[in-house]
Task: structure prediction
Amino acid sequence: MVQVTELPVPYKFSGEAYLLRNGSRILLNGSGENPKLRNGDGLITGKGVMWGIEDGGSYAGKGVEDTRITMFPDSELILSIGEFKRSNEPVTVQMITKVQLMKGLFRVLMSSADDLSKKLIIAPNFPRIEFKPLNGEFVRKKEIETCIELNDNKITLFWMDAKIIAPSLGVEAKIGDAKISHGKITITPTGVYATNLVEYPDKRITLAKKIYDYVSTGQIKQGPNPEEAGQIILPSYSLIREEDRVVPKKKVTRTMAGFTELTDEYWNKQRNAKDRWLEEAATMRKEFDKEYEYAPKRLRDKMLKELQKKINAKYKEYSAEEKKLGEELGSKQLKSIDAGKKGLTAMTKTAPISKALLYRNVDFQFTVAEKGTEKGPLVCPKGKEFLLIRFKVNNKAKQLFFSPDSEFSLLSENQLIPLDNYLLETNMDTGYSGEGFFQFRVPEEAASFVFQLGKKTEAKTTLAFKI
Result:
């Protein structure tokens, strides 16, 4: 007879709730302890709530692996239960290894040393999304804490400090930034919407918070038909506003990692190095305690000093690795700064120009226009992009001096855009030849431009182009 593994998950419910096992719905009656859970079991709420869906293993709430879920009315999920073992410990425990949300509203807190997308699964009939931290990788573990609802072919998220990516739509959206620090994200098959709940409150979310507060403070007791649970009816969400639509993220061609990515990469490697040292030190101490548990105090104290020397040597290795990582970061940042002086390091569009203009007997051969979001450590503000107009130049006149800020400008939809920066020899000898660019900060959606050469009081020499 095959032994079935059961996990003592401390879940409770109030109102109508079911256990789904082998295709059969089992009505929970609240008498005695709730049934232990098996791999593949499902939990369902009707007009009620369920909470305490947490790991029953000894690591619950303590380690890297953690799962805590509250289910609101009319919700369904399926649990996978399996073995988990930390790399530095011999103990294997049964834990919730995967949760598939089928439909309804959930409060989810989940962490993992592995990819969270393997642990938190959304039913395939809803839009596909990926969770990402707001600032690089998480420290020592990956974690998500959010309310998530799957209903009417869309996903709704709130109470979350993270960002989501909808790959099929090419859209990235955040809750936790300045614009929507208290926000709601709605993902439909055709778009992603970010709504500020301070400006546009949602009655469904307000009531959901009250229910969660009742649960978390113990004001709702377990039982099949308590009055407060049996009457739970959540109103519909507020209508989606078209002005909240998140614009798809532009395709960016990078010649170098951004400053933020470089810094995140450094901190991740530094934390991993420190974690390795802490793990090795803990293992050495555990092995020491096992070997010298019953040794005479004098011998134990002597060997403890030797152990400390070994741990200190490991710390020196970690410190040397940390120093090397810092030096690598500094070198990469200097390269990024240098690359930013020469042009864009994150490009969104390019367009050939191939047009010559003669200005003050200087021959400008314009070659290409480039738009992008980053120049080394410089990042264009939201809604803007850098525009670079590249050229080759040959001075056919006597020695000349240019004053770029007053002689070069840009028009877009009759709006004058001042010169932001340039790469140009301003004091040219006769016969001088070189290359350079003019740099502007333009609206990211702008596509038609007129570049102007000429002092304010002079007639302008112009170059019209599109990108």
Summary: The two ends are 71 Å apart (CA to CA). The chain has a mean pLDDT of 85.
